[in-house]
Amino acid sequence: METARALWRLFLVGVLGCGGAPLAPAESLPREASAERSSASNTDAPWWQGAVFYEVYPRSFQDTDGDGIGDLPGITERLDYLEWLGVDAIWITPFYPSPQVDFGYDVSGYTDVDPTFGTLEDFDRLIAEAHGRHIRVIVDVVLNHSSDQHPWFVEARSGRDSPRRDWYVWSDPATGGGPPTNWASIFEPSAWTLDERSGQYYYHAFYPEQPDLNLRNPEVVSALEDVLRFWLERGVDGFRLDAVAHLFESIELEDNPLLDALRPGGDEEPLQEHVHTMFLPEGYRLLGRLRRLVDAYPGDRVLISEAYTEDAAGLLPFYDDGPTDGVHLPFNFLLMAPEALSAPRFRERIRDASETLQGRPTTWVLGNHDQPRIVDRFDHGGERLRVAKLLALMLLTLDGAPFLYYGDEIGMVTTEPQSIEDVRDPVGRRYWPENKGRDGERTPMQWDGTLHAGFTDGTPWLPIPTSAAGRNVKALRASPGSVLMFYRRALELRGASPVLRRGALTLLDVDPEVLAYRRQHEAETYVVLLNFADEPRTVSLEGVSEVLLDNVREPSRLETAAIQLAPYEAMLLR
Ligand code: NOJ
User: Cα of 242 to ligand 1 centre, how many Å?
Assistant: First the structure.
């Protein structure tokens, strides 16, 4: 998985540059504020606190019209499955009109549905059907940039004196010619593209087809606020806010400092510290403003911000210091970083979150549409599915809102393109073969053992691996020991247990290779033991008498305090 890892690191590039933002140390919080936020055992907590979210990548979930691309009616069709699985909410990645250069993250119309995915009526039906099953629906909002085909950019590009020129970020060339600064894009060495007609450059943190919106322009902010209102009024339960670390860049056109390391992917360009282009304080303020807008609607709608940070301290400014500013739930990607299945590294990250966030609500994430599938990210000593269950138990028993990525519950694998001609994600073509792009983790959901895995009657937009013949929802539902049934049981236990949803978490030191923690709520205590080692371990534990869930053996009563764990064994105990 070397190549996939290279891409994964590419997305973490920004983390290296998170200097520049004033980070509030945890200790500086007023005592009352921390107590107020320490709502781990607060039963009046909003629905999203501790809820289980399931990410749906609509292109790949379920096709209903035979074009080989998933659609909104397809999601509606599969809601019964999601209800059976036991998730509380789904997050649907962009389905808006888009040229699909970045597969929907290049939006050319913010308040409509791309015909490939259906219609607004399909969306309304999806919301109604999901709500009928008590499943909330979160949608993505891309604030940082639009598509270069969006009418706003087409107009802005029409000339230097266009009334919308200032809706995007333009600059004259540097004095000696060439891009105004050395600022790098996430996907390519330069974040500036020359607009030949006007002789000016425009800035894009991602692909050139994704020009950055100028969020210093109040008209732009107001237009985006209207976008939020549009979807709130259609009944969404919240938003996942894309790429919020990039919202603002410095108005002083100064170069970012260069680092010694090279960008992953093989273009021989140095990495840079994004001090002028990421995590600017203006971004947090804008998020606070959006929070106020969302909070004015009834029903505890939630704002979830997407930014990769090096540590939990990097998340604090997203919450802001007041009880109502900042977003509700900044994505916490701390579990994404360890590249090895190492109990000490995971423990360190969980400890960081606990100590730094001090009870502020958080998320836990292991997979998404930008990272290789979780079963491929770690060595597993030939025990891929046992490790998949071990990671699932960790994700579903930590103290926050877990995010599942579609297909992880059946152990879907990363299926990389075989040749450059097959690559759909542009970054994979640019950096082939060192980095094959993100297609591998976006292949269609595997529903059954028929041709195309029950995803489509047409030709799927990405190939389905042959392993889908056995690794699919239908087959695994019929197999009691499967990874799918393990996820479902963990979700069932979590749903039924105030301890797992709301209990306080305490890390336990039982063995360096065994990640262990206690969850406690009122008089009830659960303990989680996760053996990250590829060899047996024995740990000693008092006060628990029952195994509720285990990835190696059947649940049972415990006869002794000395618990023998098989390699990669995961146990939930009471
Ligand atoms: C983060 C999204 O998850 C990713 O898929 C996308 O390419 C970038 N933001 C740009 O929108």
Answer: 7
